[in-house]
């Protein structure tokens, strides 16, 4: 059965960092991506994020995930923004379709930021074992319920993928044809969506029972199966990352 998390076990410095340190890193990257509005600077930021993924030895799975999701969204943005822009110079034309330069520029900025957001998030998701993250958040005085929400958010996509795979295999075992023409695949999609949505609704009740069984509403001090240590590198990064982010953001406004 597929794993219910995106975590990829590796031996790397990034894997060994405290989960909260990686959360701070993600927040800093997102802040810089919002502040920067020049494609060249965003490309540099994206390359820096990819270097972190490479150092964590998870660049290949990250690229695979982004190629299946973000790349399709980016292509859609380029088509819609390029065609829907009301005015401006025409960058190029494909028959009767005229793509405006202003729309393509906006699509470029949005796409780069989207790639940066996802790459930064994948740095956390692919290198952090979910129970460690939950224990680390509670260690930092975050409520167990809030920690559980964060953990559930990390697991929701792998969980939906696992459920969709199980439903699809069950449908194939019953004789459903999921390969062939586009119409055949659309029919298979309708057969998949119903059980997937109903199963997700049933999963909400199961999660509510899990919260109650784990005594999340009890106000006594809780113990954890996993212990997450904070190293000296973590302490340095937790201070250095926000300081550097503030410095680069300030520099961006000063050189405008």
Folded structure, characterized:
The protein is built from ten helices and two strands; from the N terminus they run αααααββααααα. It is mainly alpha-helical and 256 residues long. The chain folds into two domains: 159 residues, no CATH class; 84 residues, no CATH class. The protein starts with 12 loop residues before the first helix and ends with a helix. The model has no long low-confidence stretch (mean pLDDT 79).
Task: Briefly summarize what is shown.
With about 260 residues, the protein is mainly alpha-helical. The chain contains ten helices and two strands.
Please identify the structural class as seen in this structure: mainly alpha
The main sheet comes to: 2 strands, antiparallel
**What count of structural domains?**
2
Gap from first CA to last CA: 53 Å
Content of β-strand: under 5%
Q: What are the secondary-structure elements, in order, as H or E?
A: HHHHHEEHHHHH
- Contiguous low-pLDDT stretches (5 residues minimum) are none
Strand and helix map with partners:
Elements: H1 13-16, H2 19-35, H3 39-55, H4 59-68, H5 70-84, E1 90-94, E2 97-100, H6 101-127, H7 130-139, H8 144-173, H9 182-213, H10 232-254
Antiparallel strand pairs: 1-2
